[in-house]
């Protein structure tokens, strides 16, 4: 059988491609299956929607607002609660097509641990710890911007599961490298870099923020340069420990994805681009495959971290 150059290994898990659908963009893994032409086998993994212990209604509208080359969102972790997700939603997913990664959120350290324990008993392949959500008023971003709190959350989640742990890092902090070091010491197996940047838009007629939460997370091509730099900075910390990274932030083309791989990401996350092109993954896969063939590379990992600084 001919080896597919897009096949890769992430945390001991075999991925069909190096593309990961990001949390909050595809519901609980079933939304894009309704789109004609979409195939879960085009992606390596799907990150499920952020899940808390108890159900959440989310933030007051408006929750989404377009910006130049980007999007602000402040959904507020709307979800039906961890037990419902584990008992009612996960049994409906086809785990033969792709990998599924839970996304755990909480307003207290103990809540993170409780939700992680519930997913530990489920069929998900890995657990992403969302310590960096910028659009909830409690927890989330507060944990993600404090290295000691970040490490504490990772530590309790590590004790609550044997599944691979991925820590989603916030760009809204002074030293992302220091945070990464503390999270490695606490037991994380991988990182996702980066979550959204904090942002705001104002309605000049009523002089109020357009987003009901006042602020939201900025995603899309506008944040790509920041995401690339943060990914490379975290890669420098991760490289000696062989800790893999999901690089994300504004990826819309194969060239974008390749930049993140070269910067040090092992796989890449696709998010905002899915909202205007649900089939963008097919196009990105084709472009990556063509690049590998042109540069006589047989595997994705031959490209990872090959950036040569000036």
Total individual domains? 1
Structural class: alpha/beta
**Helix content range:** 25-40%
Low-confidence parts, pLDDT < 50 over ≥5 residues?
none
Overview of the structural elements:
Helix 2 runs parallel beside helix 4 (147-160). The chain is an alpha/beta fold and 310 residues long. The protein has helices spanning 82-89, 109-120, 141-144, 147-160, 176-186, 224-238, 254-263, 273-276, 280-294; strands spanning 8-10, 13-15, 19-21, 45-51, 64-67, 70-73, 99-104, 126-130, 165-168, 190-193, 197-199, 202-203, 208-209, 216-219, 245-248, 267-270. A hairpin with a 2-residue loop joins strand 5 (64-67) and strand 6. The strands form four sheets. It has an eight-stranded parallel beta barrel, surrounded by five helices. The protein has a four-stranded antiparallel sheet with strand order 5-6-14-11, with no helix packed on it. It has one domain (8-302): TIM Barrel.
């Amino acid at each position: 059988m001919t080896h597919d150059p897009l096949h890769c290994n992430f945390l001991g898990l075999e991925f069909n491609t190096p593309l990961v659908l990001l949390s909050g963009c595809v519901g609980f893994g079933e939304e894009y299956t309704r789109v004609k032409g979409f195939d879960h086998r085009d992606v390596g993994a799907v990150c499920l929607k952020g899940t808390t212990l108890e159900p959440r209604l989310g933030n007051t509208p408006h929750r989404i607002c377009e910006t130049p080359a980007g999007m602000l969102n402040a959904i507020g972790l709307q979800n039906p609660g961890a037990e419902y997700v584990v008992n009612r939603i996960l049994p409906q997913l086809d785990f033969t097509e792709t990998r599924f990664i839970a996304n755990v959120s909480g307003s207290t350290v103990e809540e993170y641990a409780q939700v992680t324990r519930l997913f530990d008993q489920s069929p998900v392949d890995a657990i992403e710890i969302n310590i960096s959500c910028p659009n909830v008023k409690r927890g989330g971003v507060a944990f993600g911007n404090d290295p000691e709190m970040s490490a504490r959350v990772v530590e309790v989640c590590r004790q609550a599961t044997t599944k691979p742990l991925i820590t989603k890092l916030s760009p809204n902090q002074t030293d992302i490298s220091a945070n990464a070091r503390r999270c490695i010491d606490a037991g994380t197996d991988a990182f996702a870099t980066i979550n959204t940047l904090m942002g705001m838009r104002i309605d000049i007629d009523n002089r109020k923020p357009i987003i009901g939460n006042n602020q939201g997370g900025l995603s899309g091509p506008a944040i790509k340069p920041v995401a690339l730099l943060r990914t490379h900075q975290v890669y420098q910390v991760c490289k000696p420990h062989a800790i893999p990274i999901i690089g994300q932030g504004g990826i819309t083309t194969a060239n974008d994805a390749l930049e993140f791989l070269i910067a040090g990401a092992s796989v890449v996350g696709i998010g905002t681009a899915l909202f205007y092109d649900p089939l963008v993954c097919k196009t990105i896969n084709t472009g990556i495959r063509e690049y590998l063939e042109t540069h006589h590379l047989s595997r994705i990992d031959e490209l990872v971290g090959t950036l040569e600084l000036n």
